[in-house]
Specification:
mainly alpha; about 240 residues; 10 helices; globular; about 0% strand
Length: about 240
Amino acid sequence: MLLLILLAGLWAGLQNSLAGGGSFVTLPALILGGMTPLAANITSTVALFPGQVATGVTGRRLVSGVGGLSFRALFGISVVGGAAGALLLLNTPSSLFARLVPWLVLFATVVFAWGSFSSRQLGGGHRISPRAAAVAQFLIAVYGGYFGGGIGFLMMAALTMAGLSTRIAAATKNALAGVMNASAVLLFVASPQVHWVPALVLGAGAVVGGLAGSWALYRVNEASLRVAVVCLGIALTVGLFMRPL
């Protein structure tokens, strides 16, 4: 089973580097390994965090605020929102979270598909104020601390609609994803829901997969990868709705 988790980590790291959506792989792998959905979600968040930090650090020179809203302000909003979402998750009964997971995965799948194949939505014509961007970032951070699937595309939509170019928005999004998960991880590390051996195996695989993704960035058909991610999300959603967890 640890081999399966290692392979899931490799795939998730590669996928996050190229297209995002690595949690679509790690969540079912950890559930198949015998964890409850709540424990799987918390363990996955902790395990994938180092790779997110590495990605954020790599593009740190491109990060930016939006309008009159500085990056430091976005940083603080993400920390507070991520912590709020994590506290909400830690106080959610495992049985309730198990019932929520299919809906969360469905939402994340729709967001991923929307962000992947409706490029006009990302910065396409509509603009929001810095204040609206701050509110959006806080809500995204709460969701990110609680579940996290699809946060990349939610942030890309908000940041580009606030006026950032796609490249700057992507780098800022990567940095903020690490920030909001940092506050969640700080709360999760003391939780008995973290399964440390699978987390370490998954994290090691994700780091290697992320490095491989950096190499493969211009060698892999990203459109095909995105289609595969959406298909996996649909299959996982259907499976979770049909299977009592």
